[in-house]
Structure formats: structure tokens, C-alpha cells
UniProtKB/TrEMBL annotation:
HTH tetR-type domain residues: 16-76
InterPro entries linked to this entry: Homeodomain-like_sf, HTH_TetR, MT1864/Rv1816-like_C, Tet_transcr_reg_TetR-rel_C_sf
SUPFAM superfamilies tied to this protein: Homeodomain-like (SSF46689), Tetracyclin repressor-like, C-terminal domain (SSF48498)
This protein's UniProt keywords: DNA-binding, Transcription, Transcription regulation
Annotated transmembrane regions: none
Residue ranges: DNA binding: 39-58
Presence of the UniProt keyword Repeat in the record: no
A Pfam family the protein falls into: TetR_N
Protein name, entry field: TetR/AcrR family transcriptional regulator
Amino acid sequence: MTGTARPPRRSTYRHGDLRNALLAAGVDLARAGGPAAVVLRETTRRAGVAPNAAYRHFADRKALLQAVSAAAMAQLAIAMEAELANLPETTSAETAHARLRSVGVGYLRFAQAEPGLFRAAFSVPDDLHGAASADSAGRSGKTPFQLLGIALDELVATGVLPAAKRQGAEFLAWSSVHGLAMLLIDGPLRELEPAQRRVVEAQLLDMVDLGLR
């Protein structure tokens, strides 16, 4: 018998759960190779189903990539939540500063630990409505953008950030931290040693905190 044998069918999903199996396969592909690696044929191969089966759940590759992007964004939110979980529940100016910093640390650490997923998270053109999508939320039900907004609101509530400077502060903080993340994974700063990376990260987060005030 000649020819390539069909891959064995996966037993990791039940009837009616093929969409999640395809999405999980897409996330695995993004983790290994970024958004360019997310293709329908390979996801169905990994799920052990015929290529046409994917079209019952995703109209095309763009739809699959959109779902993978949201799932990657949710993983980013979880990484940020993990950093926030290390802080006390108290309400004080000191804690508010620490929460903003933890949001940034979680963002930067995820980008470097999961560059494929980080690239995939921002690979699909979207608007700010997508940044608030439930599919992009972590375990708290908040997206990365919303977690940043909450941290900024706490700075206002504790008197650190003047209310007059609150509007649009998300965009300034987000652009600064995202820019560094991209330089660390795809730019010239990827050559920095781990200790140098930590210094640069700390300095940038200090600048964001001071700049907002």
C-alpha cells in the first residue's frame, strides 16, 4: 500500500467540541511559529479530521486566526493576572503603583516567554471593541486593556494620578510598554542579556509611572 497514511483521529475532543479542538491546534501552531503558522489544513490534520470539517466552524483562515488571536490575548491577560495576584488586596497609593507596575511586568514577561502567541494576539486588525471582547479575557473576566484601565483608575482613586490626566492614559502606557516588548522580541534589543533586559524593563516602567503623574 502506497501513499501517505491519514493522521489518527484525536480522542481529546467530544462530539460537538471540534471547534475547540481546532482552536487549540491553532493556538499550538501560533505558539511555535507565530500567526503565519496558523493555517486551516494543519489544524484539521492535528485534530484528525478532514480539511473540510474546519469550515463548519471557521469560514476561512482569517476567522480561525481571529479566534486564535483572541485566545492568545486571553493568555496575555492570565499572565498579567498572575503578577497582580502577588500583591496585597489593600487600597493605598503604594499598592496602586505596584498594580500598574505588575500589569506592565506581566505584559513584558509574556511577550518574551511566548513570542509566537504575543505576535498572534496582535496579528488581526481590530478596534478597541475587540480589546474588550469576552473571548480576549483572562480568568478575572477582564482583557489586558481592561486590566490596565483598572490599574489606572486605582491610581486616580488613591490620589496618585490627577483625574484630569486620566483620559487616554491607557494609550500612552500601552504604546510605551508594547513598543519595548516588540523591540525585545523582534528588534535590536533581543540581543540584550537577561540582566540587561530587566534593567531596561524597570526603567521603562518607572518612566511610565512618573510620566503619568
